[in-house]
Amino acid sequence: MRKPYLKKFSKISRFTVWIVDGKYIRANIDREFTNFGQHYMFNFIPKSEFWIDWQRVPGEEKFYIDSMLTINRLLAKGMNRKDAIKIADQKEKSERIKTYLIKERVEERKRIEEDISTVHIKLLKKYSKTIMVWIVDGKIIRDLFFIDFTEGGHDKVYPFIPKNEVWIDDDVNQREVKFILLHELHERRLMAKGMDYDSAHIKASELEYYCRCNPGKIDRKLKEEIKKNNGHK
Question: How is residue 151 annotated by DSSP?
C-alpha cells in the first residue's frame, strides 16, 4: 500500500499535522476514518501525527486540531474514550460558534453592560493589570446572552464582553483556571496586534497544551503573558 500523505499542514507542539487522502484510507486501511484522526482513535496513525482528510471543508482545520489536542491530552491522563470525545465535541462546538460571532459581530454589548453586576463574581486581582480578569456567572451568561459560553473568553472574540476584560466561567475547576487564562490572554494579545482569530487561537492552543504537559512552566508563562498584555488594549 502507498502512504496516504498529501501535504504537511502545520506543526503544533510535538505533533505534525498532515493532510491525507481520506478516500484511500477508507478503501484500504480503515473505512471508519472520517474527517480527521490521531493515534488514540486509529492505531495505524503514528503517535506524533494528526491526520486531516483533504476532502473536508477548507477552514475547519483548527476545529479538528483542537479536538485532537483535547482528546490526546485527556486519554493520555487515563480518561475513558467516551468522556474524552464528549468534552472535545463540546469544545469544538463552542469554537465554531465563536467564529460565527466574530464574523457577524452580534450586537450584544449594550445588553451585557446594562446587567454587568449580575455577571461579575470576583475580580482576580493577582492577574488583573491593564486587562481585568473576572470570574463570571457562567449560568447567567448562558441563560441570558450566549448558551454556548464555556471556560472563558475575552473582548476581542465576544462582542458582549466589555473592553479590556477576560472572563473565566465560575464552573471551571480551580486547577484549570491558570491554563484557560493563559490561553485567553495569549489569544487576545495576538488579536489586539492584528492577527486573525483562527491563527491566534491555534497559537494559544499550542501554548496551553505545552503548559498542560509541563505544569511546572505555567506560573512563569502566565506572568510573562500578563506583562505582555499590558501594552495591548
Answer: S
Please determine, for residue 108, whether its predicted confidence score (pLDDT) is greater than 60: no
Which pLDDT value is given to residue 57? 59
Clarify whether residues 122 and 222 are in a common domain. yes
Q: How many domains does the chain have?
A: 2
143: three-class secondary structure by DSSP: helix
52 and 134 housed in the same domain = no
**Residue 90 covered by a domain:** no
Q: Where are the beta strands (DSSP E) in 74-189?
A: 120-123, 132-136, 152-154, 165-169
192 contacts 156 by C-beta, under 8 angstroms: yes
| Residue that has been written with the C-alpha cell 477508507 in this structure | 26
Instruction: Record the pTM.
Output: 0.62
Dump pLDDT digits (tens) for 55-107: 765 677 888 898 899 998 898 889 998 899 888 888 787 777 776 665 554 45
Q: Which three cell numbers stand for residue 10?
A: 502545520
Q: At what angle do helices 218-229 and 197-213 cross, to 10 degrees?
A: 150
**77 and 112 share one domain:** no
Q: Which helix (H) or strand (E) holds 38?
A: strand 36-38
Closest CA to 92 of 57, 65, 52: 65
Q: Could you list the residue range(s) of the whole structural domain that residue 66 is in?
A: 5-82
